[in-house]
Amino acid sequence: MKNVEKMVCLVDGEHYLPVTKSTIELLNNIEHVDVVAMVFIGGNEKLRTDDPESYAKMMGMPVHFGPDENEIPYDLIVEMIQEYDADVVMDLSDEPVLDYSKRFKIATKVIAEDTIYRGPDFEFQPLTEYEIPEKPSLKILGTGKRIGKTAVSTFTSRLIDENDYEPCVVAMGRGGPEEPEIVRGDEMEITPQFLMEQSDKGVHAASDYWEDALMSRIITIGCRRCGGGMTGDVFMTNMKKGAEIANKLESEFIIFEGSGAAIPPIKTDKHISLIGANQPLLNITNFFGPFRINLADLVILTMCEEPMSSPEKIKAIEEFVSEINPDAKIISTVFRPKPLGDISGKNVLFATTAPDEIKDVLVNHLEENHDCKVVGTTPHLSNRPLLQADIEKYINHADVMLTELKAAAVDVATKDSLEAGLEVVYCDNIPIPIDDKYPDLSESVLEVVDDAIDNFNNKK
């Protein structure tokens, strides 16, 4: 027997009242549906009365009106979900009352209440969140791919490890293992030769969990995922198993790392949300960008420099975040490369996923801070044919291949460089605030960690 769905319906004055009423009756005749209330969201073309009591009497059930007939009553919809403990919000409205942007805004608010938002040809469900962690935890999620989640994760992991929180990372990726895999970054030496051995076995040795283990030197658990929905859910992942494994390890704090715009399906105590300032502004301020931002206890903007973003755009993003999530701290940052080995006095071929437009800034940083000579660069770690062509172009001029551990870093960059007799050094990316006006990044991350621990302890 199906559970009865308590349903709040969104209705408008563009529909003839008898049509709306008969549709409500049709829904109520479905065995597992109970329409508990309606929210009037606007439109008056076919509305014969502006008296809420008369409208409710004609409909034969509670109808709730917002304070301004010309504005969508978003907050009222949330209030009615809470008041009636609704399972579903059914949208019976249409153009011109609702357009695409307004519907996405409704969806963002509805699914945040752990409620389904449904219409004639769509359904948005709340995020899947398994309540598994038996330790304090946070998740790191983003508004898109290639905006620095793993770099922020490794920064966070190192930071809290240095402050004796004993963390581990559970990371999911599109190239993750069939069964969750533990990598003892705190014990083993992860060399280029070792990663080549893993690659030769068919392992995606540049997957995020290897990067976490190499850069942070802590325990990581690698998981896989396939598919990514608009709100961040995935079609398949074994991260639930990964979380169960993390419970049994000696670590005291768990970081769950997202993949692209996909969000770890694990309920955590706190959230850090990343926004790429290089992304189209529309994708941040519309659709489900606001949903991801609203989850955050700390928002980190990345790629905050020309030509990837302008000061005007960065300011606009910061103002938008402050408006919709005023409780979250906002820190705007750039990434700078940090070699894991000594490259001083050497000719360097630098492989990165950063766009070619930022090449000169990164090259100058490496040469000024690490006493090396960059003889060639390639931004094509995620494009194997172009990466291989760049390596062939520069490899005879280099002593060292300096590469991020991403995409084709092992099976192409490392492999070709070792075969040519080059030294291979891997490179981290460090987030750095763009201005002293921002809160201290390390202190802000540790505050989130401390709050996560407090939240966890208060649940006991």
UniProtKB/TrEMBL annotation:
It catalyses: (2R)-2,3-bisphosphoglycerate + ATP + H(+) = cyclic (2R)-2,3-bisphosphoglycerate + ADP + phosphate. GO terms for molecular function: ATP binding; cyclic 2,3-diphosphoglycerate synthetase activity; ligase activity. It comes from the Archaea. GO terms for biological process: gluconeogenesis. Belongs to the cyclic 2,3-diphosphoglycerate synthetase family. InterPro entries: Cyc_diphosphoglycerate_synth. One of its GO terms (cellular component) is cytoplasm. It is an enzyme of class 6 (ligase). The keyword Cell membrane does not apply. Keywords: ATP-binding, Cytoplasm, Ligase, Nucleotide-binding. It comes from Candidatus Methanobinarius endosymbioticus. Catalyzes the formation of cyclic 2,3-diphosphoglycerate (cDPG) by formation of an intramolecular phosphoanhydride bond at the expense of ATP. It is found in: Cytoplasm. Its EC number is 6.5.1.9. This is Cyclic 2,3-diphosphoglycerate synthetase. The lineage of its organism: Archaea, Methanobacteriati, Methanobacteriota, Methanomada group, Methanobacteria.
